[in-house]
Amino acid sequence: PSLRSARLATPVRAAGLALLLVAGVSACRAPAYDLDRYPVAAVDWLEDRGLVASPDVRVVSHVDVGNYLVWRYGTDAHAFADDRPSVEAMLAHRSLDQARDDWAEVLERVGPDVVLFREDKPLVPLLDASGEWPRSATIDGFAVYCAPSVRDRCS
């Protein structure tokens, strides 16, 4: 190579290295996920009380929350419904998510310790009116209900 091409190659390499460095720093500083639509604070609240990601506690939620729990805890999430449920779980989830006429029977059959639903879901006013599921908390737009078996941990 000529002296002129060697002189040109050095600044080009330096610019390429600088670009890679800037891209790497930017990628490390930017948040990897937008979790605004998920119940991060509500799940933190449940975690502080040992009411999530525990084999002896069943959390019933809608699919979005189940997906978040699986993302956060992996196989320890024990999610009721996520994007890969069984047919039985999907039918039960649909009854709860859409607040169908059989929602109370489905909830009794599923036997959750905790119900975690976004407040705008039609199941929430039914749970509030039922008397069976007093609301334990409302956190960032998510309603948390605890069964009698764990209610002492929900205060």
List keywords for this structure.
155 residues; alpha+beta; elongated
What secondary-structure arrangement, pairings included, does this model have?
Layout: H1 3-29, H2 40-48, E1 59-61, H3 63-73, H4 87-97, H5 103-110, E2 114-118, H6 123-130, E3 135-139, E4 142-146
Parallel strand pairs: 1-2
Antiparallel strand pairs: 2-4, 3-4
Strand order of the largest sheet: 1-2-4-3
Looking at the structure, what is the overall shape? elongated
What is the strand content? 5-15%
Could you spell the SSE succession in H and E letters? HHEHHHEHEE
The count of helical stretches stands at 6
Report the helical percentage: 40-55%
- Ends apart, CA distance between termini: 75 Å
Count the E strands.
4
Sheet/helix structural class: alpha+beta
Mean pLDDT: 87
Gyration radius, to the nearest Å?
24 Å
Largest sheet: 4 strands, mixed
Low-confidence stretches: none
Written overview of the protein:
This protein is an alpha+beta fold. The protein has 6 helices and 4 strands. It has helices at residues 3-29, 40-48, 63-73, 87-97, 103-110, 123-130; strands spanning 59-61, 114-118, 135-139, 142-146. Strands 1-2-4-3 form a 4-stranded mixed β-sheet. It is elongated, with a radius of gyration of 24 Å. The protein starts with a helix and ends in a 9-residue tail after the last strand.
How would you briefly describe this protein structure?
This protein has 155 residues and is α+β, with helices and mostly antiparallel strands. The chain is built from 6 helices and 4 strands. A hairpin with a 2-residue loop joins strand 3 and strand 4.
